[in-house]
């Protein structure tokens, strides 16, 4: 904030980055003013992170970086020597990365990490640095800085260490702060707090460049949004404008894919059409109406409970010998043909609940009943007869496949046939069944001979769904099925699940940390916290009028597009 | 840790960082060497016509020349012929020792990995104790009890590698047993036996090929060490360690007597390492 | 810590038991075995003395307990071939081997660090060359390396003594022989983990703060990279002991390895058992040390 | 702690060099480098031995060659031997046997004290003999050498009288050996462990310290007065200090000599001797050991070698000459005698040992071994003509093991299957004790031809309580027995020589043994080491006259 500063903290004109023969960034131009927050949004592979790193001269040893103009605070940084770059990094531009557990050196106290910036760029003595570190921690809202300063990043909570990481980046009050996916690994409530902190920093006059895959997240604090796709900036504009009236098709696709606040049954993906090609997209409204009807009828006697959890409890032994109650007296019921969403932050007991429902773990107390039959209490032998009726979809699709098998073998096995038979000797009717399955999940026949390792994330999850469908189940238990996917792929998979549920009358348990997703897919909802269900009920009701304070807090934190 | 575990760890590391399918120069060379070694082991006459034990006192101590590319030893035996014919010896000893170690390792590792906590605990403690006889110590203890010789040295090397195999197999079993795809199979309604046969065993046993390849190199070096120390094969047997041992006496005047057998030990060990890693990488990325 | 100590005592007890029963596996008269095997020209008096000392005439259980009792008081028995008590003999030889092992370990770390640091910075070619060197180094058998070093440095160049001497010069070749293969292993581990560390987000953070490459290496990356290598120390110790058998023999150095080999050749059972026991104790100490070193480098483990 | 009583195979325990020797350099006292000038006092000499490190420095205990090598520097015997093979005075000035040969009076030097201050007198000799004959000393070599000594009495402080049970023509030769050297009676009083660590004698050096597996440090005895009669000078030794190291690996040992780390090495290998000859800075000293030559004994006690024709066939089928010349590269000369070439009484008969495969084949045909089996070996009644040949890796140097390998190869051409079985010392003794051998090579060092009695008298077939017996050829010939027994009692030199000649001829003609070469005893030394020589008794080096020209 001195003398004749130019308005732009950063000016980029026609930035090009390539690795080997492959251009990754193909001519990107933008500028950020002081006190402004610009968000660059794009899916994985769009070139957004490389762009951010090029601004620090850290695109990598074998990267070729070129630009017509690249100015930090009015001074060009094109062709800087390594030494000159080092003098600017930290001082003229700060960087905040995703997940401070690994972005701060896990072997060093956070105080030392923060003090490093001071040590490198100032002549402050050790005592002065220590004082400044405390001030910084205080400034980023870390409680009790004096005791936290000695801790390792692993000893802090996710929010605390992300604050510490920000403190390290702003230690020298750089005019520009680059935040690359700063909230991605965080729970929603913490994410909201960090976004608030970044907003605060912006207001204080720092230019903030926010990099994210999540339009909803950036919409909270970004003044302007730039959308990147395939190394190009396809759309730039004020946030409300880009999100409210996206011009570019890719932006439209991304906006549409955001599930939060989209009513149940609305299609999220633009590129994929409902598999029943005959039914026009408008038919969705009918479905939506149906599902609303269904919602209304959940209390009626016509519906039947297909799966029921009664007072489930499960505890684990911690390494120190104490017991940790992962699931505490959880009860709920899944109605035929409906979706029960279970939502909670990390450590809330969601996954343990899923494993209890799949009878992969015996409950300490309580029981699971399926189709009115004892399930958790039955012997595995008895249960095995019922297992085909209960399918499962996992977050880590890849890990859930035997690495030695190709898709054909996986699905043949799931059909209950011997997987050992190679394609050559497979009976024609088996192949026909495999192709039907693939068609149902929208995969081409060519994937049959591929191994899961060779497939994309979305394809893998489709194979996972196909496998779950092979036994013709009535119930599908989905544990975070879309959380490792890009937004547009997530949209496709969610749409697929929706289609399948309608066609087959499936009943779904849908477990996720993402309230937006859960809101979109669920008829009923159960909010979990610390092993307990704190609130449950029809999704519409819970989202409209949450009762429990935690639900209120959680809902408030959900990133939404501006209305 | 045992040598084997270190080798396996390094292979895993290399497999993680390496490119999936590229046939590197190292791999190609190792492949050619492996073929050469196998031919030498199976039909040594194809590569070297002479008699590895045939003496010719008049041409003793000849340095490497066209007639004797690796030179001759103190009794005029052609060292190239001996090295080629010695391949069989070394590979058979290495393979036998590996088979013994791997066999014992499979039994111990499977016991520990499959039979529940008490057995696991017991076997683990037992292995821990065996690790307190590091390196060649267990082999030397075995030899002092049963006397030196090729057979005892082979068994001794096998025994001393067994704990390493056992621990790797146990760890692999436990990893596979709790893998997501095993749970997925349970959810599909597969029985314990089906899961064991279709998933756990194949996924545990497949890496053994890598282990055995790495292990055979190690076993050859150890067996040669024992021969060198005079506790294994004895001269004039055309065994590499024994040849080196015989050559040590003449090291000041006939370096070739120890250089070439040693070179083949190193080449074999490197070949085993490179091939083991290559197989590992291919299996992971296949 | 109590659990660790308990574990250590358990291992020692088990090692003692295994060696005790191992000696009983020797075919024929155990007294004869103690005196040097079937062909030893042991006199009846000597045999009788050994039988009394070891209590071979008593039930096995009594012998076993008596043996444990002797070991507990530090009595390792007597070597009939060397005409000496095993305890003091083995302790005498310990120092030389420890010196050799410590120097070799230190040099191996230096070599490995240098090679790893060079090959991670020098691009693909350096990485390939580094990796190739490491694989070959790791495959070098001690006996061949020692002999080759002697040929080159003592016989051809005549710059280094081929045997251990009073001065430091005599240590060079033995230490190199032990260190080079070890450096091959450590180097591979270090290089891979160094690469991983240099790619990690916290290094990117540090660079973004303006940290120099040297600072990145020394403040962050090496510390992380050394963790997996430190965990190899227990194994490295074993490899050094095996190596010492060869190296001490070739370079005529006094030490445990040479004592062990001589004893194995003479089938001097009490000495072999004595060395095995000492090595087991040393191995246990080494694992405790490794733990301590890991904790020192990795503060995450301290808080637990 | 009894060291297993091994009848003197003095061979070098671990790397024992077996030897054969070239008489070229002989045992000339002068240092090899001629323009040496006046001897100079002072300096430290490092000696590197390839022999096993003794477990006890007192050669009374046990009694093997490694002990003799080092103890010759600090212990002295009553008598010595000169290059001509005659017994000469040392600690004893003179001696007189009685006419019946049963009483010997030795007159001792009066001016000698042990390095601990104890006087050397008749009582000291008495104490030493008593120590050797005391079973708890566990003496093997010395004990056997004193087998005929009944009592030892002090006639006066300077005259000691040995009384024998029967005449012993080998008494003086026995007493000249280092294993019967004189030690301080006061020191002998100490515990055996202590005396083993620091024996006290009258020699030119004193044991100062002994770091096991590394080195023994010897310092000069400044009060030394008692060199043997054939020494080159009088008074204290020139060297101030001697470091006596143990370097079992022969290549390391030679390399250490080359680099100047050590000054003298023993057990030099043939190839290094050849190299040394081309080197300006390294000299050689060759001094074959006395007693028996190195030879392969054929076990005449069992088939197939119980047939003299098969024994001769084996000897004729072995091409020893080519083997020795290729492996020893001119450093060893082929022997045709049972005795070492340094023994004046040795009989050599080259004609008996010609390589003649055709003759061998005829002999085998005649002996009935006329079948040929699938592998090309001869057989009789379906039994293959095989020869079990256990080889002690401790006693046969690599070159000698290679000689055996070449014999194995040439004998195969005639149809013998020779099964070489290299084994450790313990297993080797076990194989011999259980009569599980047909051929064997066992070096044997003793001063004088009396060694023949030990090796070829039928009494030596009877195993000692330990199971060992010296007559490995299992020669059981009453005529040989008679000749050897008589010779051992005969003090007349000529008559004794003729008796031993008869005995040797009969042994050689019986084809009981295949002589190879003398027990090799090569030393290599730096060119500036002057005045090194070996004692003509058992050819151990003495550093008394040695000095450093630097």
TrEMBL record, chain B:
<dbReference type="InterPro" id="IPR035906">
    <property type="entry name" value="MetI-like_sf"/>
</dbReference>
<feature type="transmembrane region" description="Helical">
    <location>
        <begin position="208"/>
        <end position="233"/>
    </location>
</feature>
<dbReference type="InterPro" id="IPR000515">
    <property type="entry name" value="MetI-like"/>
</dbReference>
<keyword id="KW-0812">Transmembrane</keyword>
<dbReference type="InterPro" id="IPR050366">
    <property type="entry name" value="BP-dependent_transpt_permease"/>
</dbReference>
<dbReference type="GO" id="GO:0055085">
    <property type="term" value="P:transmembrane transport"/>
</dbReference>
<keyword id="KW-1133">Transmembrane helix</keyword>
<feature type="transmembrane region" description="Helical">
    <location>
        <begin position="23"/>
        <end position="43"/>
    </location>
</feature>
<dbReference type="Pfam" id="PF00528">
    <property type="entry name" value="BPD_transp_1"/>
</dbReference>
<comment type="similarity">
    <text>Belongs to the binding-protein-dependent transport system permease family.</text>
</comment>
<protein>
    <submittedName>
        <fullName>ABC transporter permease</fullName>
    </submittedName>
</protein>
<dbReference type="GO" id="GO:0005886">
    <property type="term" value="C:plasma membrane"/>
</dbReference>
<feature type="transmembrane region" description="Helical">
    <location>
        <begin position="91"/>
        <end position="114"/>
    </location>
</feature>
<feature type="transmembrane region" description="Helical">
    <location>
        <begin position="126"/>
        <end position="148"/>
    </location>
</feature>
<feature type="transmembrane region" description="Helical">
    <location>
        <begin position="253"/>
        <end position="275"/>
    </location>
</feature>
<keyword id="KW-0472">Membrane</keyword>
<keyword id="KW-1003">Cell membrane</keyword>
<keyword id="KW-0813">Transport</keyword>
Automatic annotation (TrEMBL), chain D:
<dbReference type="InterPro" id="IPR039424">
    <property type="entry name" value="SBP_5"/>
</dbReference>
<keyword id="KW-0732">Signal</keyword>
<dbReference type="GO" id="GO:0030313">
    <property type="term" value="C:cell envelope"/>
</dbReference>
<comment type="similarity">
    <text>Belongs to the bacterial solute-binding protein 5 family.</text>
</comment>
<protein>
    <submittedName>
        <fullName>ABC transporter substrate-binding protein</fullName>
    </submittedName>
</protein>
<feature type="domain" description="Solute-binding protein family 5">
    <location>
        <begin position="86"/>
        <end position="456"/>
    </location>
</feature>
<dbReference type="Pfam" id="PF00496">
    <property type="entry name" value="SBP_bac_5"/>
</dbReference>
<dbReference type="InterPro" id="IPR030678">
    <property type="entry name" value="Peptide/Ni-bd"/>
</dbReference>
<dbReference type="GO" id="GO:0015833">
    <property type="term" value="P:peptide transport"/>
</dbReference>
<keyword id="KW-0813">Transport</keyword>
<dbReference type="GO" id="GO:0043190">
    <property type="term" value="C:ATP-binding cassette (ABC) transporter complex"/>
</dbReference>
<dbReference type="GO" id="GO:1904680">
    <property type="term" value="F:peptide transmembrane transporter activity"/>
</dbReference>
<dbReference type="GO" id="GO:0042597">
    <property type="term" value="C:periplasmic space"/>
</dbReference>
<dbReference type="InterPro" id="IPR000914">
    <property type="entry name" value="SBP_5_dom"/>
</dbReference>
């Amino acid at each position: 904030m001195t003398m004749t500063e130019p308005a732009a903290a950063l000016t980029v004109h026609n930035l090009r980055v390539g690795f080997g023969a492959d251009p990754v960034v193909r001519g990107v131009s933008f500028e950020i003013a002081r006190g402004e927050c610009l968000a660059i949004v794009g899916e994985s592979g769009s070139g957004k992170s490389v762009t951010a790193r090029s601004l620090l001269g850290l695109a990598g040893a074998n990267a070729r970086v070129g630009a017509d103009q690249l100015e930090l605070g009015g001074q060009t940084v094109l062709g800087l020597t390594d030494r000159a770059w080092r003098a600017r990094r930290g001082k003229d531009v700060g960087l905040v990365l995703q997940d401070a557990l690994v972005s701060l050196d896990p072997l060093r106290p956070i105080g030392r990490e923060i003090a490093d910036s001071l040590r490198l760029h100032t002549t402050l003595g050790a005592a002065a640095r220590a004082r400044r570190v405390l001030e910084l921690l205080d400034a980023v809202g870390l409680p009790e800085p004096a005791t936290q300063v000695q801790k390792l990043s692993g000893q802090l909570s996710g929010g605390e260490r992300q604050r510490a990481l920000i403190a390290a980046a702003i230690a020298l009050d750089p005019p520009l702060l680059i935040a690359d996916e700063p909230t991605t690994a965080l729970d929603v409530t913490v994410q909201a707090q960090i976004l608030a902190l970044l907003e605060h920093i912006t207001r204080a006059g720092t230019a903030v460049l926010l990099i994210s895959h999540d339009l909803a997240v950036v919409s909270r604090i970004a003044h302007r949004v730039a959308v990147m796709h395939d190394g190009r900036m396809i759309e730039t504009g004020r946030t409300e404008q880009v999100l409210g009236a996206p011009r570019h098709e890719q932006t439209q696709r991304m906006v549409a894919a955001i599930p939060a606040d989209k009513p149940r049954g609305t299609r999220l993906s633009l590129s994929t059409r409902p598999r029943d090609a005959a039914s026009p997209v408008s038919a969705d409204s009918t479905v939506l109406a149906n599902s609303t009807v269904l919602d209304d009828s959940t209390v009626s006697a016509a519906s039947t409970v297909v799966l029921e959890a009664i007072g489930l409890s499960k505890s684990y032994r911690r390494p120190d010998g104490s017991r940790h109650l992962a699931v505490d007296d959880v009860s709920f019921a899944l109605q035929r043909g409906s979706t029960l969403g279970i939502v909670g932050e990390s450590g809330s007991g969601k996954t343990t609940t899923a494993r209890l429902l799949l009878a992969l773990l015996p409950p300490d107390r309580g029981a699971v009943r399926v189709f009115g039959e004892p399930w958790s209490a039955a012997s595995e032998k008895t249960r095995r007869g019922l297992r085909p009726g209960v399918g499962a979809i996992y977050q880590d699709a890849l890990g859930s496949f035997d690495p030695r098998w190709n898709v054909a073998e996986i699905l043949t096995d799931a059909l209950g046939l011997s997987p050992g038979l190679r394609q050559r000797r497979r009976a024609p009717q088996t192949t026909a069944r495999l192709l039907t399955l693939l068609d149902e999940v929208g995969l081409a026949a060519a994937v049959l001979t591929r191994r899961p390792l060779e497939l994309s994330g979305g394809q893998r999850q489709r194979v996972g769904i196909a496998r779950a469908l092979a036994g013709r189940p009535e119930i599908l238990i989905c544990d975070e099925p879309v959380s490792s996917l890009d937004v547009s792929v997530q949209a496709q998979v969610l749409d697929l699940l929706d289609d399948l549920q309608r066609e087959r009358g499936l009943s779904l348990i849908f477990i996720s940390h993402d309230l937006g997703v859960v809101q979109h897919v669920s008829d009923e909802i159960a909010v979990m916290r610390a092993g307990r269900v704190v609130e449950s009920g029809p999704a519409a009701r819970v989202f409209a009028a949450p009762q429990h304070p935690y639900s209120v807090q959680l809902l408030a934190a959900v990133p939404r597009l501006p209305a | 840790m045992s040598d084997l575990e270190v080798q396996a760890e390094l292979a895993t590391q290399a497999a993680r960082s390496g490119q999936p399918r590229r046939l590197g120069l190292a791999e190609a060379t190792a492949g050619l060497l492996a073929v050469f070694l196998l031919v030498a082991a199976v039909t040594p006459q194809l590569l070297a016509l002479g008699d590895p034990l045939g003496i010719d006192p008049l041409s003793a101590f000849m340095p490497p020349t066209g007639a004797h590319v690796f030179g001759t030893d103190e009794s005029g035996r052609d060292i190239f012929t001996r090295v080629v014919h010695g391949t069989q010896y070394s590979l058979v000893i290495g393979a036998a020792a590996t088979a013994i170690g791997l066999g014992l390792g499979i039994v111990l590792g499977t016991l520990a990995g499959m039979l529940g906590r008490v057995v696991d605990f017991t076997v683990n403690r037992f292995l821990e104790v065996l690790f307190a006889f590091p390196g060649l110590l267990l082999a030397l203890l075995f030899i002092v009890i049963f006397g030196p010789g090729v057979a005892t040295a082979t068994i001794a090397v096998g025994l001393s590698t067994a704990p390493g195999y056992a621990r790797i197999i146990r760890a692999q079993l436990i990893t596979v047993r709790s893998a997501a795809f095993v749970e997925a199979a349970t959810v599909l309604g597969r029985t314990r036996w089906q899961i064991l046969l279709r998933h756990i065993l194949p996924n545990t046993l497949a890496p053994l090929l890598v282990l055995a390849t790495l292990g055979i190199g190690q076993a050859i070096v150890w067996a040669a060490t024992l021969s060198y120390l005079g506790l294994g094969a004895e001269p004039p047997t055309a065994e590499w360690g024994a040849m080196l041992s015989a050559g040590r006496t003449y090291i000041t005047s006939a370096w070739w007597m120890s250089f070439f057998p040693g070179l083949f030990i190193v080449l074999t060990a490197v070949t085993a390492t490179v091939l083991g890693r290559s197989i590992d990488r291919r299996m992971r990325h296949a | 810590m109590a659990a660790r100590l308990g574990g250590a005592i358990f291992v020692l007890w088990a090692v003692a038991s295994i060696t005790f029963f191992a000696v009983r596996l020797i075919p024929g008269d155990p007294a004869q075995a103690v005196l040097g095997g079937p062909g030893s020209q042991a006199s009846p008096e000597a045999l009788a003395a050994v039988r009394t000392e070891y209590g071979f005439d008593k039930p096995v259980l009594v012998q076993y307990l008596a043996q444990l009792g002797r070991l507990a008081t530090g009595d390792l028995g007597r070597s009939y071939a060397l005409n000496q008590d095993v305890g003091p003999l083995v302790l005498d030889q310990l120092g030389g081997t420890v010196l050799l092992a410590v120097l070799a370990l230190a040099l191996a770390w230096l070599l490995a660090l240098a090679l790893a640091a060079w090959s991670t910075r020098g691009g693909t070619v350096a990485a390939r060359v580094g990796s190739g060197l490491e694989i070959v180094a790791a495959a070098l058998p001690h006996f061949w390396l020692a002999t080759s070093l002697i040929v080159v440095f003592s016989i051809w160049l005549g710059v280094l003594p081929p045997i251990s001497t009073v001065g430091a010069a005599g240590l060079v070749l033995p230490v190199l022989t032990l260190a080079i293969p070890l450096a091959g292993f450590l180097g591979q581990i270090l290089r891979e983990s160094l690469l991983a560390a240099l790619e990690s987000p916290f290094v990117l953070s540090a660079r973004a703060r303006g940290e120099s490459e040297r600072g990145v290496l020394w403040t962050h990356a090496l510390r992380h990279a050394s963790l997996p290598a430190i965990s190899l120390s227990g194994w490295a110790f074993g490899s050094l002991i095996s190596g010492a058998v060869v190296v001490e023999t070739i370079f005529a150095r006094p030490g445990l390895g040479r004592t062990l080999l001589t004893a194995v050749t003479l089938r001097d059972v009490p000495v072999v058992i004595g060395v095995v026991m000492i090595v087991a104790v040393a191995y246990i100490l080494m694992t405790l040390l490794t733990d301590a070193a890991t904790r020192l480098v990795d503060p995450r483990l301290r808080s637990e | 702690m009894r060291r297993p009583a091994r009848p003197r195979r003095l061979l070098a325990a671990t790397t024992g060099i077996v030897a054969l020797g070239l008489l070229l350099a002989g045992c000339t006292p002068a240092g090899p480098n001629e323009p040496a000038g006046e001897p100079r006092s002072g300096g430290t000499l490092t000696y590197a031995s390839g022999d096993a490190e003794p477990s006890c420095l007192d050669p009374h205990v046990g009694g093997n060659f490694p002990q003799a090598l080092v103890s010759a520097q600090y212990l002295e015997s009553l008598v010595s031997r000169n290059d001509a093979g005659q017994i000469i005075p040392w600690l004893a000035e003179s001696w007189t046997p009685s006419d019946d040969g049963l009483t010997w009076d030795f007159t001792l030097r009066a001016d000698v004290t042990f390095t601990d201050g104890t006087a050397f007198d008749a009582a000291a000799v008495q104490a030493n003999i008593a120590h050797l004959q005391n079973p708890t000393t566990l003496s093997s070599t010395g004990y056997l050498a004193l087998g005929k000594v009944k009592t030892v009495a002090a006639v006066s402080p300077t005259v000691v009288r040995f009384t024998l049970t029967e005449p012993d023509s080998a008494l003086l030769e026995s007493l000249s050996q280092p294993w019967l050297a004189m030690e301080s009676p006061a020191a002998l009083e100490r515990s055996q462990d202590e005396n083993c660590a620091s024996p006290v004698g009258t020699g030119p050096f004193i044991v100062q310290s002994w770091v096991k597996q590394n080195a023994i440090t010897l310092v000069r005895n400044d009060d030394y007065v008692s060199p043997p009669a054939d020494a080159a000078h009088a008074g204290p030794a020139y060297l101030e200090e001697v470091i006596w190291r143990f370097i079992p690996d022969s290549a390391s040992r030679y390399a250490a000599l080359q680099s100047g780390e050590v000054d003298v090495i023993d057990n030099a290998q043939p190839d290094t001797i050849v190299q040394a000859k081309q080197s300006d800075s390294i000299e050689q000293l060759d001094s074959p050991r006395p007693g028996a030559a190195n030879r392969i004994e054929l076990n005449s006690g069992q088939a197939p070698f119980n047939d003299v024709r098969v024994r001769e066939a084996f000897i004729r089928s072995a091409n020893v000459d080519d083997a020795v010349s290729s492996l020893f590269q001119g450093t060893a000369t082929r022997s045709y005698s049972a005795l070492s070439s340094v023994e004046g009484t040795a009989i050599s008969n080259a004609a008996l040992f010609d390589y003649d495969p055709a003759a061998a084949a005829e002999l085998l045909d005649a002996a009935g071994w006329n079948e040929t089996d699938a592998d090309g070996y001869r057989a009789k009644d379906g039994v293959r003509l095989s020869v079990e040949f256990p080889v002690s890796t401790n006693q046969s140097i690599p070159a000698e093991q290679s000689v055996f390998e070449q014999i194995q190869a040439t004998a195969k051409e005639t149809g013998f299957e020779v099964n070489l079985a290299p084994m450790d010392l313990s297993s080797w003794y076990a194989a011999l004790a259980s009569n599980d051998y047909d051929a064997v090579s066992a070096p044997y060092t003793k001063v004088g031809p009396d060694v023949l009695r030990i090796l070829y008298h039928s009494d030596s077939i009877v195993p000692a309580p330990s199971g060992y017996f010296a007559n490995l050829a299992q020669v059981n010939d009453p005529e040989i027995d008679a000749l050897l027994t008589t010779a051992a009692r005969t003090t007349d030199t000529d008559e004794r020589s003729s008796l031993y000649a008869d005995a040797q001829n009969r042994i050689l003609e019986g084809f009981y043994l295949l002589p190879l070469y003398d027990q090799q005893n090569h030393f290599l030394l730096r060119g500036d080491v002057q005045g090194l020589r070996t004692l003509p008794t058992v050819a151990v080096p003495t550093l008394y006259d040695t000095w450093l020209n630097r």
